[in-house]
Each structure stands twice: as C-alpha cells, then as structure tokens.
Amino acid sequence: MFTQAERQRLLALAREAVAAAAAGREAPPVDTADLPAALLRPAASFVTLECAGELRGCIGGLEARWPLYEDVRRHAAQAATQDYRFEAVAPEEVPKLEVEVSVLTEPQPLVYAGPADLPGQLQPGTDGVTLAYGQRRATFLPQVWERVPDPQRFLSMLCEKMGLPPDTWRQTKLDVSIYHVEKVTESELE
Question: Could you list the pLDDT tens digit for every one of the 190 residues in the chain?
C-alpha cells in the first residue's frame, strides 16, 4: 500500500508527463533523490485517462522494466499520445482529464481444468486478467469488471481485444494469468 504522499506524487508525475506529451515536449527530469523508495523500485503500471467519465487513453505494461516513477511517466505520455483508439490529447484538454494510475502485482498463471471451468476461477472486481494464445495477448485491468461484471462476457470481450472470435475461450484452453492492482485516482485524493 502506498502512503498518501506517494499516491499524490505518482499522480503528479503522471499528470506532468501527460501535459508535456500533449504539448509535444519531454517531461522534465525527476530528482530521484527526492523520491520515496516505493517509487524507485521496479514495478509495472497502467495509466488511464478519462474525460467527462469517458475513456480518453490507457496504456501500460505487465512486466516491471523500469523504476515505478519512470514506468508511470512513460505510460502517461503514451496514454496521451499513442493509444491507437484515440486522437492525441490536445494541450487544452489536459485540465479536463482525470488521471488514474494502476500499479500491478506480478502476474501469476491461473491453473484451470478446461474452458467450462475458467469463468468460475476468476474473481470479478479483483482480478486483472491476461489471455494469451500463440503470439496474441490481451489484458483487462480489474476496473473493467465495473462495466462488464459477467465473467463469460468479460472473457469474450478479452478474446475480441486479442483479435480472436469472442468464443475462443470456450473452444480451446488459453494461457491465463491474473494480477491485482493498487489504483490511485485524482478524484479520490481531492
């Protein structure tokens, strides 16, 4: 669990990176001597941007490749400018955005007997889920359960996100991993 100060710092770093990316600039360097130890440890994150309650961008990674502060900054800039589903965020949009940072636990393989068993193995609202089939892979953060609470529909949508037919999870045994997140949003800190 992050302290209130660590949560505020993560969100400030993300917002700063979004604003810089929207303006076509690099975010300013970070004085790492000033950062709490929790933000210096390698960790994986996703940064989600919303505007008026609608998704505006979301990018992240499943593996810890950089210190958390750097992972958040990279993904915040990418969420603002490189999410293929949206136009890049314009500088005038930045003040209207709600920034959310999700810090992931390390994904763990989910052992299940077969396709019929899979939905019952998932914990809606808690599990982030990654499906893999060959070279294809897709994930949904635990927050997606808020909009899609049915495990079967959740899995079908995740198959579609992977570029496969929605019933693929019913037809074949996929590689499944689960993870959890600690979510930090600007609105919860106000």
Answer: 899 999 999 999 999 999 999 999 999 999 999 999 999 999 999 999 999 999 999 999 999 999 999 999 999 999 999 999 999 999 999 999 999 999 999 999 999 999 999 999 999 999 999 999 999 999 999 999 999 999 999 999 999 999 999 999 999 999 999 999 999 999 987 7
Q: Is 114 helix (H, G, I), strand (E, B) or coil?
A: coil
Q: Give the C-alpha distances (Å, rounded to integers) separating 16 from 8, 69, 75, 130, 135.
A: 12, 12, 12, 29, 34
Domains of the chain, earliest start first? 4-104 (3.30.700.20), 108-179 (3.30.1490.150)
| Contacts (Cβ under 8 Å, ≥6 apart) of 31 | none
- Read off the tokens for 6: 């660590």
Question: pTM higher than 0.85, yes or no?
Answer: yes
